[in-house]
């Protein structure tokens, strides 16, 4: 009986710890963010995204030892860095901390000397493909920034520090020195060989503000559009059909002979490009992103006469070379349709994507889930990503804020001559205030929606950052 009671107490304690862990998240799923840019599918539902996530996790996430998790590849006995990074993005937006932490620890266990994950691993351990693939690093770094927002960095894993270190590794080893061209890996590529589907300009803008290195990363983002537009022009492409691989000049590369169709067609690499660029439009309203995404959307709507006619491959002139209608291609074009200025086409694209059933296809189903997260408002720009990392760490002057949480009125005490900015979870400023000689003031957010806000207090060259909870 005593043994039973002891086990019962242990079980209750375990449940309490798990509940505490869940309640610590900043933004539980579903987030249902309104991006503020682009169209939204009329029939969107976070239930669709959650159902897809649950299938993905059941079919592709596998536990290793010591709390590690991996994502099973097409060959289920193998793991690729791309899959780990996709998993990190999905689990952090789903607020699934246990799985996220296990995936990140797996990534770290399998890094090379440059601090990036070897691209292919045999199951839970054993390098099968050496050195990095840049898309994995880019996705993993963005996921760590979201994790810092989601759970904070004072626990076992310092997400903020890990994000800084990974971004530095990308800058040092996966961006070509002097050109801002994103290399496809830490040990190869650059101006003579790059991959447009690895370009994530929205993330690069976040990296710049997060590490206080905006000029550098904005140049990387700008170079992405230069290369994409050069590739479309050089090869007289229809719509936004970039080639899988190319040179920075946009021309085909002599170094891509080992890839499908010598890297000269719109296949399973290039297919992700509309999704990545659509993120830059939805998060930042970037005009270059809108122009490119609309080209992609119009290609499907006008040239193909609708989403139902999408196939899994095209020559750059728009002629079809694929035969399958799958989520990798349909979903990326659906994301582009958010910038396509045609509501019925976006609605049809969303329905098409959601109806596709490929639960055992690693690539198709993983990307389907990613696309659905974006289309349902669950793939958001964390407000912490819009502020320099200095804002989190600089604590050399006192700021008092109470009560917090509050129903709407907060009392704030700061040094004189301070400037106050309050931003919402989308990074938009909802209140600004100059303190001058006043040390204590009221912050009135009673007209704002309940939720999480962030306050930035600027005093000369010093900054302090506080989270505000509005009930």
From TrEMBL:
Residues 401-469 form the Secretion system C-terminal sorting domain. Belongs to the glycosyl hydrolase 8 (cellulase D) family. Residues 1-24 form the signal peptide. This is cellulase. The keyword Signal applies. It catalyses: Endohydrolysis of (1->4)-beta-D-glucosidic linkages in cellulose, lichenin and cereal beta-D-glucans. One of its GO terms (molecular function) is hydrolase activity. Its EC number is 3.2.1.4. Keywords: Carbohydrate metabolism, Cellulose degradation, Glycosidase, Hydrolase, Polysaccharide degradation, Signal. It comes from Flavobacterium jumunjinense.
């Amino acid at each position: 009986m005593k043994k039973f009671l002891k086990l019962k107490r242990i079980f209750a304690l375990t449940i309490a710890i798990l509940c505490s862990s869940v309640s610590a998240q900043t933004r539980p799923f579903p987030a249902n963010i309104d991006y503020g840019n682009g169209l939204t599918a009329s029939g969107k539902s976070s239930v669709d995204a959650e159902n897809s996530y649950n299938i993905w996790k059941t079919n592709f996430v596998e536990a290793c030892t010591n709390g590690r998790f991996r994502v099973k590849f097409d060959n289920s006995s193998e793991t690729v860095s791309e899959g780990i990074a996709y998993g990190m993005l999905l689990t952090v937006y789903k607020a699934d901390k246990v799985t996220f932490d296990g995936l990140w620890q797996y990534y770290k266990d399998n890094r090379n000397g440059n601090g990036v994950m070897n691209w292919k691993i045999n199951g839970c351990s054993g390098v099968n493909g050496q050195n990095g693939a840049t898309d994995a690093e880019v996705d993993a770094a963005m996921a760590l920034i979201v994790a810092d927002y989601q759970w904070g960095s004072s626990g076992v894993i310092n997400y903020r520090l890990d994000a800084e270190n990974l971004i530095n590794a990308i800058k040092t080893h996966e961006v070509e020195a002097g050109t801002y061209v994103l290399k496809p890996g830490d040990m190869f590529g650059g101006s003579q060989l790059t991959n447009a589907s690895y370009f994530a300009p929205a993330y690069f803008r976040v990296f710049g503000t997060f590490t206080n290195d905006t000029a550098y990363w904005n140049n990387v983002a700008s170079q992405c559009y230069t290369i994409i537009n050069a590739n479309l022009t050089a090869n007289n492409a229809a719509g936004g059909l970039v080639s899988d691989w190319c040179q920075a000049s946009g021309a085909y590369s002599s170094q891509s002979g080992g890839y499908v169709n010598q890297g000269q067609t719109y296949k399973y690499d290039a297919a992700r490009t509309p999704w990545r660029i659509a993120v830059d439009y939805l998060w930042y309203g970037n005009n270059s992103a809108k122009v490119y995404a609309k080209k992609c959307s119009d290609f499907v709507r006008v040239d193909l006469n609708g989403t139902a006619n999408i196939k899994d491959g095209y020559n750059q002139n728009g002629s079809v070379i694929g035969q399958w209608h799958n989520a990798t291609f349909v979903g990326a074009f659906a994301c582009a349709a958010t910038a396509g200025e045609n509501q019925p086409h976006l609605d049809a694209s969303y329905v098409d994507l959601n109806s596709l059933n490929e639960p055992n296809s690693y690539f198709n189903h993983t990307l389907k889930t990613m696309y659905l997260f974006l289309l349902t408002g669950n793939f958001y720009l964390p407000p912490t990503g819009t502020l320099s990392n200095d804002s989190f760490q600089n604590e050399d002057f006192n700021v008092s804020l109470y009560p917090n949480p509050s129903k709407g009125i907060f009392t704030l005490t700061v040094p004189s001559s301070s400037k106050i900015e309050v931003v919402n979870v989308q990074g938009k400023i909802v209140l600004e205030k100059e303190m001058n000689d006043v040390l204590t003031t009221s912050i009135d957010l009673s007209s704002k929606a309940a939720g999480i806000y962030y306050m930035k207090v600027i005093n000369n060259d010093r900054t302090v950052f506080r989270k505000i909870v509005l009930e």
